[in-house]
Amino acid sequence: MKARIVSGVVGLGIIVPPLVWGGQRGAEIVVLIAMLVGLEEYAGLVLGEARRKAFALLLAFAAPVWALLVWGPAEWHVPGITAAALALFLVPMFAWSDTTAGAHAGLRLVAGLVYVPVLMSFLPRLRALDGGLTWLFLALAITWAGDTGAYFSGRAFGKTPLFPRVSPKKTWEGAIGGALLAAAFSAGLCLAFLPRVSLVHALVFGVLVDVFGILGDLVESMLKRAFGIKDSGWIMPGHGGILDRIDSLLFTAPVLWIYATLFQLG
Questions:
Q1: Is 111 exposed, middle or buried (0-12, 13-18, 19+ CB in 10 A)?
Q2: What HEC string does 150-207 produce?
Q3: Is the dihedral of CA 79, 84, 87, 88 positive or negative?
């Protein structure tokens, strides 16, 4: 527990200043570093026997997709993702001498293209919205509140398993408690910092973001269970890897950005 607290405080001390005072560029740099670490962790998670080769391919084709999504013109987004996906399907066919291993690698690498750089590109996209710093911290706060509410509600009232095949400790009672706290945080933060966002919107996307946060956590749990790995990495003592810490955020940031954009709230 001590290691978790210390590494958590140190982590916040590293990422919060550039997010707050670094502007849009600071957020992009922080997310870029996290994305690169996440790519390496993903390569080890799904292709441990060929970690270096998989990471090299992801670095060559997936990292430029992130840069394109963040810095490139919108009309190049779809062509860029398509070209990278085609390359990550084709290259393993030649890079792996075993046909089955090459097919598995191609599928996993294309999934990694979406899972890490595409989903993480929505964090700087949130920062770029009107009032972007608030939207970015809103995503973090709702995700954190949902996790915290689910943890304590689950410990106090949890009896009904949510999805035991993937995550045996999660309960419906915990999920409901997390959704309530996430909605409360969303409403309070919007009232204080985003007054143009109505209470209805704040409550709706608070619950919606929390639901997708749970799904994001379940997806990473599924991957780790499928590949027999406890933690995605070691970079945060007591917490595991970057992907262990942002698995929910990978799903919540896109959902919040889509909601804010769709209803023209940002």
A1: middle
A2: HHHHHHHHCCCEEECCCEEEEEHHHHHHHHHHHHHHHHHHHHHHCCCCCHHHHHHHHH
A3: negative
Handedness of CA 61, 67, 73, 78 (dihedral sign): positive
Residue 44: C-alpha distances to residues 55, 105, 109, 115, 128 (Å): 8, 12, 11, 14, 32
CB under 8 A, 24+ apart: contacts of 4-12? 4/237, 4/238, 4/239, 5/238, 6/237, 6/238, 7/236, 7/237, 7/238, 7/239, 8/236, 8/238, 8/239, 11/236, 11/239, 11/245
Confidence of residue 232 (pLDDT cuts 50, 70, 90): confident
pTM: 0.91
DSSP 128: T
- Would you list the domain boundaries of the chain? 1-128, 131-266
Q: Is the pLDDT of residue 82 over 50?
A: yes
The residues near 9 (Cβ < 8 Å, ≥ 6 apart) are none
The yes-or-no verdict on residue 8 having pLDDT over 60 is no
Interior/surface letters 129-138, b for 16+ CB within 10 angstroms, e for the rest:
beebbbbbbb
